[in-house]
Specification:
This protein has about 280 residues and is an alpha+beta fold. The strands form 6 sheets. The chain has a 6-stranded antiparallel β-sheet. The protein has a 5-stranded antiparallel β-sheet with strand order 8-7-5-2-9, with no helix packed on it. This is SH3 domain-containing protein.
């Protein structure tokens, strides 16, 4: 009875915020959470999980908070059975709390109310394999030509060639990628972009340069394998896949570097024009 009343109050509060019109009407509404003190710890989730492991909420409703304790503010209230994704790599509990992604936002949820659906510990390794190739027979883009406005590669196929200055450069062959086409294949964004041999170019650096439901800005100090760096100044841009190294110094990277270089694995630095991004 009490739980239903709290949910109704939360819904009414959200309706009032959405229909008020004036900015002050939104600021005056406080999000009402659910009680996090009623469950037992016998089946609580603890320990470390892989990045992008899939979890499910087991409580009737579960608060998504801005930090790992009930003292932190509530970002959202997740219904029972909601699917959430672990955010860190590895994702270890902090006092029984996990940082997760749900509904377009990242927050903290109590492990007491979470259960594991699937673990995906090797997601980052698989992304690097799509970039470099070789791991578990994965076809990699490194070694193929730079192809402006495209993204496709396939094992044992001609690498193609590029000449001139892009975007008016000339390409021969059916395989290659530019920097954005390469990153989209490596990250498999959108979710339909899974076949590296199928030519596609869904995003440019102008899209990777701003946060979206697919990726968000992170600190260059916290870069992990398969994160990326990007810049776009309105007239030009570039992006590349990070593998290891100092985010502010020498970086081991995978990138479709330009017409004269093709798609390469190399050591490089990145100016302050670049910022780091992470795929959800």
């Amino acid at each position: 009875m009490g739980s239903n009343l709290l949910k109704c109050l939360a819904v009414l509060s959200l309706i009032a915020a959405g229909c008020g019109g004036a900015e002050s009407s939104v600021d005056s509404v406080e999000l009402k959470g659910v009680d996090e003190t009623l469950a037992t710890s016998e089946s609580a989730l603890t320990g470390c999980l892989g990045y992008k492991s899939m979890l499910s909420t087991t409580a009737t409703s579960l608060n998504l908070r801005s930090g790992p304790a009930t003292s932190y503010g509530i970002i959202a209230v997740m219904p029972q059975g909601s699917s959430v994704i672990t955010w860190d790599n590895p994702s270890c509990d902090s006092g029984g709390w996990y940082r997760v992604y749900w509904g377009g936002v990242v927050g903290w949820a109590s492990g007491t109310y979470l259960s594991v659906v699937t673990q995906t510990a090797s997601v980052r390794n698989e992304a690097i394999a799509r970039a470099e190739g070789g791991t578990k027979g994965a076809p990699g883009g490194v070694g193929f030509s730079y192809w402006w406005g495209h993204g496709a590669w396939k094992p044992n196929q001609a690498a193609g060639s590029c000449s001139g200055n892009c975007g008016s450069c000339t390409h021969t062959g059916s395989y290659g990628a530019d920097c954005s086409g390469f990153l989209a294949k490596v990250w498999q964004v959108p979710s339909s972009n899974t076949n590296v041999a199928t030519d596609s170019h869904p995003y440019g650096t102008i899209h990777f340069n701003v946060d979206s439901s697919q990726w968000s800005t992170i600190s260059r100090d916290s870069l992990l394998k398969a994160d990326a760096l990007v810049y776009n100044d309105g007239s030009a841009g570039h992006t590349f896949v990070y593998e290891s190294g100092d985010g502010w110094g020498n970086i081991l990277a995978h990138e479709c570097k330009g017409c004269a270089y093709g798609c390469v694995k190399n050591s490089r630095t990145a100016t302050t024009a670049y910022h780091a991004i992470r795929h959800f």
